[in-house]
Amino acid sequence: MYLKSIEVHGFKSFANKLVFEFHNGITGIVGPNGSGKSNVADAVRWVLGEQSAKQLRGASMQDVIFAGTELRKPQSYAYVALTISNEDHKLNVPYEEVQVARRVYRSGESEYLLNGVTCRLKDVQELFFDTGIGKEGYSIIGQGQIDKILSGKPEERRELFDEAAGIVKFKKRKATAEKNLEAESQNLLRVSDILTELEKQVGPLEKQSEKAREYLRLKEELKKYEISLFIQDYDSGQEDLQETKTNISNAEKELDEVKKEQESTKSRFEEVEHQIKEYDELLEQKKEKCNRDRVTLAGIEGEIRIAKEKISSLSHGKEYYTDRMGSIQASVEEVTKEKEGYLESQKEFTGTLVQMQSEEEELLKETDQLGEKIGEMEKTIAEQNDIILSSMNQTSEIHIEHQKIASMMEQNSIRKAELNQRILSNKSQVAAAVEQMQQEEAALEEIRQSLDAEYVKRKEFLKKAEECRTEVKDLQHELHDRQRDYHMKSSRLATLKNITERYDGYGQSIRRVMEQKQENSGIVGVVADIIQVDKKYETAVETALGGSIQNIVTEDEQTAKDMITFLKKHRYGRATFLPLTTVSAAAGRIKPEVLSESGVIGCVSELVKKDHRFDGLVQYLLGRFVLVDTIDHAMALGRKFKHTLRIVTLEGELLNPGGSMSGGAYKNSNNLLGRRREMEKLEEEIQKIEKSMDKLRDKRKRLEEDASKAEQRAKEKDSVLKELGLRENTANIKYEQAVAVKEQKEAEFNAIVNDGKELESQKNILTETLSRIDFQLDESQRKNDLAKEIQEQTTEELEEAAETLSKSQERLAELKLDISSFTQKNSFLLENLEKTENRLIELEKEYQALVEEQNSSDTQVDQMNQSIKEFEGRITTCKDEIATLEQEIEDYTKKKEELMVSQKDFFDKRNEMMEHIGELDKECFRLGARKEKLEEQLENRINYMWNEYEITYHNAKETAGEPEFTYARIKNLVGETKNSIRGLGDVNVNAIEDYKSVSERYELLKTQHDDLIESEEALKQIIADLDEEMRGQFNEKFSQIKSQFDRVFRELFGGGKGTLELVEDEDVLEAGIRIIAQPPGKKLQNMMQLSGGEKALTAIALLFAIQNLKPSPFCLLDEIEAALDDSNVKRYAKYLHKLTKNTQFIVITHRQGTMSAADALYGITMQEKGVSTLVSVKLIEEQLKNEQNAAAQ
Question: Would you say 1103 and 1071 are in contact if contact means Cβ atoms under 8 Å apart?
């Protein structure tokens, strides 16, 4: 058995489909850092069942899917497949070749495939049990596993040794057995609990069943007695009811006559009462007007008092205004004099200040001019000094530059001669390189055109396949929804059919009779089976039928008689039978005028669907019921027809003859009438769903075939693209090399030409520079002489200007002090002047306000005197009007008293009539109440008999013969029987069936309990056997691994000693493992005390020891020798060759020594950023050398 190939597509950096083919021996996978080599190891670990994204160097499982680049879109899924040769049949499957694959989609869906067939992760794990292959085994070793072996705790190394010892499968079986044992224990506990409960139920149920049989016997006797009482009560009640109706009619006639006489007396009484009411209204109006006048009079007198008080107040205020106005005029004269004094002083200060400011401005102008003049002179002197210094420096530099240029002219001539020789040699080399580049470019372009064409075709096939797969997925979801709907509806239909066939919701006696239907053809069915009703009428029809809905319809009386005998014989209870030969329509159909009333929907018997042979039966059951929409319409209809109708509403309220009503919340969990309608609807919906599912399956199959064809075509194109890709890489390298040679030669030629041009340009510049230097020498000397002359003249003028400026500045400082003093004094005067003006304004405002207030008070006094005169006139008018009103009130009161005397006679007569009417009303009410009570008693008795025994008066009359006892004796017998029933206490009538059911269940569970105990013991024995076998095998294999480790350690280290130890005082199956190493020339020490290279080599020695003892079919090593030096790498590679006899190795490496030991090499690089691809190994070797050289620098 060995690994034949790895196929990756869309996994991490492998965007394109790549296939790695392997043979026996060592296969090396090489490439630069970051090229994606370790992704090969991740791919193998992932396909073998790795569930941790962290172990795959990702944050989530979606990170293993190619994420895209700047030029490529992300892939929608990742796919990896391992193809393993199984010619020696080490894997327990009947195939020569086994392919294990795993695919994950970006949506999160994942699947495992075994030879193309979907399987479970558990199937993959079990396939590789005890082979060393697997994510926990030792067939895939990376640097992470090396670190885990070296740095992990002793107990964390168990997985590796368990796999090597071959006890992993036993541990898995033990875990499964322990899980089953836990389940069995839970089941045993549950069954024990149930048995305990059943044991508690069996005894009581046996007693209850005996009590139930006695109860049924007493109930049967009670029914016989109550039927006899019911017939006698019904007959006597009908006689009393007829007598009461006659008395009611007589009383109502006398009441009508008295009411007519009362009406005539009432009209005369109302006329007198109306006149008294008119006088009351007039008196009220007059009294109200008189009161208003009195209130007005009091208000006017108050207004007069207020006006007089205001006049007095205004007279005192006038004296205050006169005194205050005189005081204000005196203050104004004083403030005016003060203001004039301030104005005189300000005039003097202003004149002096203007003169000083004028002199200050002239001095400032003079000093500014002098300052500017001095600055210009100083600037001129500084400039001339700079010119003199610059001229001297320039002259010195010019002499030096002259000598330098003469030397450069000589060198220029020598270099020009050398360049002419190089130009001739380079022209021939450029021509040859251009010809070679054109040939390579043509070859590369031809390959790229083929590659683009094939890639476009492949992309079209993949796009078509992806579209088909997407549509298949959508169809699958839709099909799943339809299937779920189909199963739900099928389950509901099956449940309804089962309920219908078993007659759930019916009484026990009904179910027992219907079980005989196949044996007795005379049984037609229950009433609910023979009629069909619209959903909106179901509640009303079930209410109207009442208990009759469970009545059994038979072809004739003989069948009914046989079934009654059957029920008696087996004591199954009672049932009501409706023979078609004897049941006929009830007498008295509903009158047509009833059906035309408001809210009436129709006769209930006409609203149900049935076979014609059941017309008489349906008319018998429902012919007397009227269906009405609401209870309000039902009550109105009942009153109109004197409560002689049976009325039922859509919501199930029932109004019986005589006026009794029943209704409320309608609970009907059985829904006997709606079952058939619901079953027919479900069957129709299920047929539609089945048709749509067949269409979806056909469409899905076509799309899957199209997708498979497209994928196969794309797979064919992958092989072509792979070959063209390799050819393109080779041609591209050759073309780039030719371009590089051509560009190098052209660059050399251009450099030579540029050098020649530069030399010629340099010569011209040097000649011009020599001429310019001679001119600069003459010009520099001339500027130097002129600058010295200007400097001397300017210095004399500067000294005179400085003296004048000093005198002007002293006079200017004195003026500034004087101006500051005068400005401060003038500011103080202005502030005083402003305060004076504000004071004058305030006095003027106050004076003006006092004048206005004095004028206003005089006007108010005149207005108030005028108002007082008007108020006195209104007082006189009010007093006259009040006297007139009081006289009118007295006259109206006398007339009202006269009418009230005549009204008293009417009162006496009316009271006599009311008393008589009251007595007649009471009598009518008493007779009506008696009639209703009699009707209610009859209705209650009828309902009681129906609810209790499902029997009517006519049925009772037919079944009962002559009474055996007197009425009083029968009543005593009923009481005694009820007392006997009450003496039984609470009775469970289902206890007989329950006792039988519980007994059977107890026996069944007791058998299960015994079986579970045996199963639990067997599982415990299995676990003990597994532990014993694992301990023996682990001890044996551990000692062998320990011996192999020491031998391999000595060979890899060239001496020394390596040993393994189990952690003491722990179970050998759970104990940790210590690794102790002693390299040559060192003391025995713990792993943590070794160097990095020694640790790595020790871990490699342990892995090789395990491979020696129990070789895995193949082993993938990911840069585990990275920490080793060159000499140890050679030892590592040498030992690796020894192991190839039994194990195939795939080695991911950077080390030259390991590459040299490999039988075959694969190169991986990223020519396109972010996308790993296979290339020739020579190209990879060049990239590795470049990386090593760069690292060395």
Answer: no
